[in-house]
Amino acid sequence: MAENAVTTTTGESTAALEGLPGVVSDWSADKQAFPVPWGKAMMWIFLLSDTFIFTCFLTSYMNVRISTTVPWPNPSEVFALNIGNQHIPLILIAIMTMVLITSSGTMAMAVNFGYRRHRANTTALMLITAAFGAIFVGMQAFEWTKLIREGVRPWGNPLGATQFGSCFFMITGFHGLHVSAGVIYLTVVALRVWRGFYDRKGSYETVEITGLYWHFVDLVWVFIFAFFYLW
Amino acid sequence: MEQAAGHAHGEGQQHPVSVYLWIWALLFVFSTFSYLVDYFHFHGYLRWTLIITFMVVKAGLIVAIFMHMAWERLALKFAILVPPLVLLILIGLMAVEGAHTFLTRLTSFLR
Fold it and tell me: Do A22 and B75 lie within an 8 Å CB cutoff?
């Protein structure tokens, strides 16, 4: 693995160790610990902190759902839609899940094209990703409107346990905020790609960093979908 | 070889497009499975086991492939993936606390 050679403080080039010895040498060798662009390491650390925030939300939701003596509203019915004459349970959330996964796929392809220096393809795929994100937020706005019209409030609702409303608005609201911020972030970076900013900079790593954020938004939705909508 | 060691270079993570397409397809399949768990009204432990299984598989695929964690060095994997494990302690404590509150409410308010 000559490509993995790292330079030690003494200037000599040694092959990077793998596995656990690699962890020890990366963290203790008096050098940069993570051989990735600094922006990528910082994005990962930001996402780590975000993981803690979302876990706190989901944990508080678990706590109030366990402790309530009033029956929890059935999400399958709450989020059902009548399409034509068909009453389909949870269909809105299923479509939102598919939209977000589609956007994750287009983002992964954008990163791939970015590293191949396909400027047009990268821009187009990032804008498509942003468009899917905007569609997701739009569907969420529709979902909120529907529930608010049905009388769901953070302090109570006619469907069952009072805590349902507060958990719903807090968790999906915070996730929706992340998606909205991601749409703006993606659009800004996509326009920079289009203008050739990263060609002049000589690196498309920003596209991958943006991708990390976007995939994380999808990742959080996987957990929200499982614990809030399916449980 | 250049793909396997790509992370050490300026050109970053480069992997065959087919890898992404496969993972993309798998995510659709597992999301559909998750939805079908609800559609077919599975209940109890079967439902919870299936939901968690599909959730973990999807999360793993996203982190490992789409977020390229599978190709990062172990030091970065540890720095990012190990700290969230302490959240399991929080979840465990809050589950116990929630059950206690539930029992207290039963004995105090529903006599």
Answer: yes
Name the percent of chain A lying above pLDDT 70. 94
Total residue length of chain A: 231
Considering only CA atoms, give the Rg of chain A: 22
Q: What residues does A6 pair with on adjacent strands? A: A14
Contact A183, A191 (CB under 8 A): no
Among the residue ranges A19-33, B13-27, B71-85, the one predicted with the least confidence is A19-33
Closest alpha carbon within chain A to B38: A230
pLDDT value for B111: 59
What's the rounded Cα separation, in Å, for the pair A37 and B9?
10
Residue A13: is its pLDDT beyond 80? no
Nearest CB to B13 within list A20, A33, A208: A208
What the block records as the tokens of A129 is 């990703």
Query: What's the pLDDT score for residue A35?
Result: 84
Q: How far apart (Å, rounded) are the C-alpha atoms in residues A5 and B66?
A: 26
Element (H, E) at A13: strand A13-14
Nearest chain B residue to A99 by CA distance is B28
Are B6 and B71 in contact by the 8 Å Cβ rule? The answer is: yes
DSSP state of B15: -
Residues of B within 8 A of A68 (CB-CB) are: 102
- Global pTM value: 0.88
Q: Which residue of B has its CA nearest to A218?
A: B62
Closest partner residue to B28 (CB to CB) among A51, A52, A98 is A98
* pLDDT tens string B16-54: 888 899 999 999 999 999 999 988 888 889 999 999 999
Determine the Cα–Cα distance for residues A207 and B43; give it in Å rounded to an integer: 42
Q: Where are the beta strands (DSSP E) in A81-183?
A: 81-83, 86-88
